[in-house]
Amino acid sequence: MKPKRRPFLKLAVALAMSFPAIVAAQQTSAKTPRIGLLAWWPCGMPYASETSEFGMFMQGLHDLGYTLHELSFECRSASKQDSRLAAAARDLVQLPVDVIVTSSQPAAHAAQGATDAIPIVTIISGDPVAAGLARSLAKPGGNLTGVTYYATELAAKRLQLLMEAIPGLATVGVLANPVVSYLPFETDTKQAARHLGVALSLQQVSEPGELDAAFSRMKADGAQAALVLPDLMLADQSSRIAALAIEHHLPIMAWGSWYVADGCLMAYSADYGVMQHRLAYYVDRILKGTKPGELPIEQPTKFDLSVNLKTANALGIELPQSVLLMADEVIE
Description:
Layout: H1 10-14, H2 19-25, E1 34-39, H3 55-63, E2 72-77, H4 85-94, E3 99-101, H5 105-114, E4 120-124, E5 144-148, H6 154-165, E6 171-176, H7 185-196, E7 199-204, H8 211-220, E8 225-228, H9 232-236, H10 238-247, E9 252-254, H11 257-261, E10 266-269, H12 272-287, E11 304-308, H13 309-315, H14 321-326, E12 329-331
Parallel strand pairs: 1-2, 1-3, 3-4, 4-5, 6-7, 6-8, 8-9, 9-10, 11-12
Antiparallel strand pairs: 10-11
Helix pairs in contact: 3-12, 4-5, 6-7
């Protein structure tokens, strides 16, 4: 997921350097826990900055009372390429580290493929049981635990909200990355569309350079709005997607609030900052001796609707009062 923008106050002061610099400065003893960060975005960014992949996780550690003198960090990045996650995970395993932390399901699969012994703490976008990452939510077993924001009804809910915002909606474009086709979102969206009587223009986008043509195809297919399915590459392109949506006059429903902050019309999602923060709890329990397989995988209980009124005006859309009353966040 794309990191949520927010300041980190005291933590930002403590961590206003990149992780390579932190690691070089640490005097790691045999008793200092070593946390491996399996990143999709580059490791060389300041990890307490507002664009950090692990910023809220670091805030969570800080809130639990940890300091840099008590922990050691190693970061390995896939450099924005899912295909490089496996090699990055193997690097962390070979060091080794005491626990691996990731912020996405593709990274979780890579980590679990690299080790069945080192604990893994992660955010999971799909169904962890169906994906083979856990035996059950209550008792994951194995070496992986964390938070999942998956619910089969999310695809239908996003479509329903889009239909309520755009009366008469008949055809919806869909942006999906075939690299993560093993995730359940395409299937869920197709099933929801059939149930709601909406036609889909499904566009497979595996590289940022394919977005322009995908929008053109959606428009040619008669799409009146579009859904963006969960994927890290697409999340990284949220600003570009927002600009293309304005250019092609296609209202967007996305899966993360940062899309709305970047100019897309709507998003319906769990709070990713809260989920990232919660990963620190799992790491704390594991470092204190609890086995990851004994820590239940949690699910968010609240999902928020975000809308961008400036974008609505640019698209010439007057959002119904019913939608505005449901919105938890309104950008004006």
